[in-house]
Amino acid sequence: MDKRPRKRQRLAWDMPPPVPPPKVLPPPYCGQEFGNGQVPNYAYPSMYCRGAPRVGSPPWRPDNKDGHYVFSIGECLTPRYTILSKMGEGTFGQVLECLDSEKKEVVAIKIVRSISKYREAAMIEIDVLQRLARHDIGGTRCVQIRNWFDYRNHICIVFEKLGPSLYDFLRKNSYRSFPIDLVREFARQLLESVAFMHELRLIHTDLKPENILLVSSEFIRVPDHKFLSRSVKDGSYFKNLPKSAAIKLIDFGSTTTEHQDHSYIVSTRHYRAPEVILGLGWNYPCDLWSVGCILVELCSGEALFQTHENLEHLAMMEKVLGPLPQHMVLRADRRAEKYFRRGMQLDWPQSATSRESMRAVWKLLRLPNLIMQHVDHSAGDLIDLLQGLLRYDPAERLMAREALRHPFFTRDLRSWNVDSKLKTDVELKSERQDLPKRACLRVNELCPTVFRLQQVQNRKAKHEDGGNRKRLRTGC
Fold first, then answer.
1. Burial of 17 (0-12, 13-18, 19+ CB in 10 A)
2. Are residues 144 and 248 in the same domain?
3. Is there a single domain that holds both residue 393 and residue 277?
4. What is the mean pLDDT of the chain?
């Protein structure tokens, strides 16, 4: 059994140049890396060391006030890695795009803040990543760790470079939803990854679109028929779609096991399961609740529960999914009892913090109506799958392998085929010129299901208003 990764030794190859007395600087941190990712069996060395700088090392600088590593584009992060750009920043630290001079490939390096709790979380993540890598044959489910090292008191984890997160893709695409066939491919891979982790007795606890990355950054532009009525000049007639549906999970800093001590709160707010909010304890099913919330967001373009407060969050759940089960309310933790009245009813809207909060809850649709608003074919199967993933009681919630056997995946075998979406610049220009003609196409040719629903609504409106027809906006 592999030992858990320990701190890397610190050697003298990466130090600032010697300063003549009496102006002597305090000795800086320095780091050493090991290409195979394994830790040698010797005791921890001193945190400080002295020596001449190795060629290619940047000048030593103090970290900023938040403990982030200070760098410049083009300099080296150890002689092996050259910094190309900054890819992102988060609570944990920064992610840099770097060139690996040994492997001649571009990698992503996560540089963790030089603060104890983040360093400890990074060591846990390295442990999980190495465990996943040993079992993930082919490396298709989770991001692959290439290397790790301790550099100037920053844990640095080297990853394969992937594409944007699903959240970033949605954001840069004006939060337009993905086609249902593409959502099915994402869902299948996501559930496979979750099932893989659960079979290794690992719980991710922080599943969200930000932690699901596309393998490729390539995308194509295709016409978006939902925006036929808009002007072509503002570009809203076209939307971006990824060329490849391949995705991988990232960010295992919060991953835990079934038998470890569980913190009271886990998961990012929008994707947090009801048992966590009620203080009932949590386990593997909390990941499946997050998957359900993610799938709704991919279909609609918006987070299902956009809230930052527990009572409002529970009220949103009841608006979308129905009332909470009484047996869960009765067992709620003391910290959650204040959200309920004596009759075990949620204390809403009486305890709402603002009118804005009340409107945020009231505007939500029931789950079936919400899905029907954004999905044409496969809507029934998707609704049934989501109702299984978003069951309040974690004991009744679908597990990952069960969800993969759902008819949403087995009944409709259509796969995401990006080749049929590819268009040349000439074709795109031609489509822009033909837009007025396309806008005049019958709605039932573009979206038959919605057209039939429109016909029913029109007949009902005609009956109610004595024959005065209402002009209804159509959308696919």
1. exposed
2. no
3. yes
4. 80
pLDDT single digits (tens) 368-409: 999 999 998 889 999 999 999 999 999 999 999 999 999 999
Tokens 């040719």 locate to 445
- The count of C-alpha atoms lying within 13 angstroms of the C-alpha of 189, restricted to the half-sphere facing its C-beta, is 21
From the centroid of its chain, how far is CA 321? 23
- Give one DSSP letter per residue of 197-256, joined into a string: HHHTTEE-----GGGEEES---EEEEE-GGGTTS-TTTTTTEEEEES---EEE---TT-E
Residue-range definition of the domain harbouring residue 148: 32-160
175 and 261 together in one domain: yes
The verdict on whether omega for the bond into residue 349 sits within 30 degrees of 0, i.e. cis, is: yes
pLDDT of 37 > 70? The answer is: no
Same domain assignment for residues 155 and 170: no
Q: Pick the catalytic residue from 136, 206, 251, 381.
A: 206
Domain co-membership, 470 together with 409: no
Same-domain pairing of 182 and 156: no
Both structure tokens of 459: 């007949």
- List, in order, residues 6 or more apart from 381 with CB less than 8 Å away: 406, 407, 408, 411, 412
More confident residue, 329 or 463: 329
pLDDT (tens digit, 9 = 90+) per residue, 232-262? 555 567 889 999 999 999 999 999 998 887 8
Last residue of a domain, one of 116, 145, 160: 160
206 belongs to the catalytic site = yes
